[in-house]
Amino acid sequence: MASPPVPSGHTVVIVGGGLAGLAAAATLVKAGFSSVKVLEAMDRPGGRIHTTKPFGPDIIELGANWIHGQQGNPIYHLAKEHGLLTEGTETVMCLPGFVTPRDYFFHEHGRQLPVELVEEVCSFFSKLTDKAFEHALDEKYTHKSLGDYLDEEFKDSLWANSKDSKRVFEWCKRSECTDEASSSLYELSASELGLYTALDGGFFNSLGPGGYQHILDVFLKSLAADVLVCSKPVKCIQWGLDKKEQASEVAHPVKVICEDGQELHADHVIVTASLGVLQEKAPAMFEPSLPEVKMTAIKKLGFGIVDKIYLKFNERFWPEDCAGIQLVWEEGFEDKEVLTSLDEESWKKAWYKKICGFDIVARHPTVLCGWITGREAKHMETLEEEVIGEVCIRLLRSFTGWKVPDPVSVLTSRWWKNPYVRGSYTYIPYGVDAMKQQAALSDPLPSSTCPPKLKPLQVLFAGEATHVKFYTTTHGAYLSGKREAQRIIKHYRHMTPWYCS
User: Fold this and answer.
1) Cα–Cα distance between 66 and 197 in angstroms, integer?
2) What residues contact 276, with CB distance under 8 A and at least 6 apart?
3) Alpha-helical regions (H) of 111-195
4) String of b and e for 83-110 (b: at least 16 CB within 10 Å)?
5) Average pLDDT, stretch 99-127?
6) I want to staple 243 with a disulfide (CB 3.0 to 4.6 A). Which of 131, 212, 251, 352 is the partner?
7) In what order do the strands lie in the sheet with 268-271?
8) 317-356, pLDDT tens digit by residue?
């Protein structure tokens, strides 16, 4: 039996044209909503998806790179349906659970570390993090940070007395910071990590030559040309309005005021702004102010910075069997003793010590990609790309001893400096109840305890930060946008009373 049609004439404004916003819009349009508008602050759709071509005809991803998991992943199935996947795994980011002999690990004093040692330590580290993800931690770690849990397990391990093993273990923690988008694993919850659900089917599923832009295009093609409006940042969302407060004859409970002065009236507004933007702007963005429980969630959840550093060379200088060059420090920043001894001047001066390494890049045989996270990434964004390139080349030369040429081009992402993003993705800080805070963040306004005669579902919230199981991912963003659209659709299809009781 076909679903009953939704009533016509109801206006939905979506703040943010990233994957969550586009998924919400496409879902609403498919259901029959004829008045849907997506307001994107940037001059392009996509949000934290940013596919570029700075080095020629082949793509470089400054944002989202892979599809994580296959089974039950709507983004993977959409990509497969439209022929957007590439066969096999082209390249991976070097993480502890994916280390191979093709990953060259160098100590800062210029010696390459034995493959066997690297693989054994990384395997041990991966088993520890797997226990955290599987909710299999000992009860004593319930109220500890992920970093403290890992350190306690390592000190009782076979490798505790090996200096090189300790240094590789620090690299593992530094690498995990990049995966988790945290400045340090000592600010990340060990017990809450298990709420994230990893889907079966591989962590690094690669898209074809069109990259993530072709995923966006699938959604954009389903929308009329006038649905998406770019370069339209929102200044304020007024909700809880009634007829007396509005000049228009048709009562809309929400008014969206853009920075250019344009006003849009709506029955429903879906806010898909990043958690970073909400942390910065939410206090002044909503009238009346957001409920205290929602503001608490916005403040308590973490939103980290992960940046990429692309180095393009005229020719390849690394061996054919080398998939990446990983940097192992004598005193790395994820060594707790080192971390706690650093003042601001010290870590800013040595910001480059947070770089994990440099990996090869699909379809770019002469390009390497470095990864950096946290406060060091934020500081890096204040530097010129020429300076960043000089530092990276100095590292590559001193660690490997190879004849490393100067790059012909340097390109970095700058997700913190982008005022419409303010970071990369969500993490759960130590001491935070993730389910409670993410539920509060995603709860629509007015809530179930709304005053009489307030129209329901005036302001709804989507985005990867609102998804308990799939935060940090593109499929989490997609599912959250679809969730809020379906919430509105069900409201009308089930003939929900127009007023709260």
Assistant:
1) 16
2) 303, 416, 421, 422, 423
3) 115-133, 146-155, 163-180
4) ebbbeeeebbbbbbbbbeeebbbbbbee
5) 97
6) 251
7) 228-229, 35-39, 11-15, 268-271, 459-461
8) 999 999 999 999 999 999 999 999 999 999 999 999 999 9
